[in-house]
Amino acid sequence: MMTYLPKDELKPDDDGGKKGPSTNRILIWILVGGVGLYLLGSGIWGILVK
Known about the structure:
Layout: H1 7-10, H2 23-49
C-alpha cells in the first residue's frame, strides 16, 4: 500500500502531535469574530432603534 503523506506527517512528533493552532489561524479567527460581532451588534442596534 502506497502512502502519499509527507514524511514529517508519518513520524510521530516529540510533543505527541499536539501542536496548537498557528498564530495566523488565531488572528484570522479573531478578525472574523470581530466582523461577525460588529454585524450582529449593528443588526440588534438597528432593530432596537427602529
